[in-house]
Amino acid sequence: MGVRIIALFIYGYEYASTSLIEDLFKSYATWDGRNGTHGNPAVVSGIDQLLNDFGYTVYDPGDGVDKIITTDDGYVINYDSFNMLSGFYGLRNECGPSRSCRASALVSYDVAGNPTMANQERSFGWSSAYSADISTYGYYSGLSYNGSFLVRAVTSPVPIPAAAWLFGSGLVGLAGIARRKKA
C-alpha cells in the first residue's frame, strides 16, 4: 500500500480523508444512525443519485423475482437487483496501521428497475466516529468490488528563490537601459 500512496501523491492525488467521505455521502442522503437497510424514499433517492453521479463498482442483476423485506428503518419493500459503489479512502493510519478505510453505498431495485432500498452502515463511510478497518470486512476486500476515493493533493506553492528575483530584476533593468538607448 505504501508504494501506491506514494505513486498517487506524485501524480497529484491522495486518498480522501474520512471526513471528506462522510461529507460526500451525507450531501446526498441523510443518515438516521441505524446501520443496515433503509426504505425511506428520500434516503433511497439520495443514494441512487450518488450512484448516478459517480457510477458503481458492483452490479447484481438479480434473478427477476421480487423479494419482500422489512427494512431496518421500518419500510416494507420489494427488491431484486442492486448496484453498489465501494472504494478505499483514508489518510495514513486513519483506519488502523497500514490499512485503508472502505466506504460503500448500495441501492436495491425492484423487478421494474425502481430504486426501493438503500444500505447505510457506520462502518462504510457514514460516520467518522467509527474506526473499524477493512480487515474486519474481508468478504468485501476483493479488488473487483472496490475503487478508490481520491482527491487532488493539496500542495503549498513553491517559493521562488532570492536568486530568481535578483535575476528577474536584472533583466528588467537591462530592458530599461536598452529602451533608453533606443530613445
In short, what is this structure?
The protein is of the alpha+beta class.
Descriptive key words:
single chain, 183 residues, alpha+beta, 6-stranded mixed sheet, two-stranded antiparallel ribbon, 4 helices, 10 strands, disordered N terminus
Describe it.
This protein is α+β, with helices and mostly antiparallel strands and 183 residues long. It has one domain (17-146). The chain has 4 helices and 10 strands, in the order H-E-H-E-H-E-E-E-E-E-E-E-E-H. The protein has helices at residues 2-10, 18-28, 41-54, 162-182, and strands spanning 13-15, 36-38, 58-60, 67-70, 76-79, 81-89, 101-109, 115-120, 147-148, 150-152. Strands 2, 3, 6, 7, 8 and 9 form a 6-stranded mixed beta sheet that branches. A hairpin with a 5-residue loop joins strand 7 and strand 8. The longest helix has 21 residues, at 162-182. The radius of gyration is 25 Å and the shape is elongated. The termini are far apart. The relative contact order is 0.19.
Oligomer: single chain
Number of strands: 10
Average pLDDT figure? 78
Query: What's the total helix number?
Result: 4
Estimated helix fraction: 25-40%
Order of helices and strands, N to C? HEHEHEEEEEEEEH
What proportion strand? Answer: 25-35%
| Whole-number tally of structural domains | 1
Q: Label the overall shape.
A: elongated
Question: How much is the radius of gyration in Å?
Answer: 25 Å
Structural class: alpha+beta
Please give the largest β-sheet: 6 strands, mixed
Query: Uncertain regions: pLDDT < 50 for 5+ in a row?
Result: 1-8, 134-144
Report how far the terminal alpha carbons are from each other: 65 Å
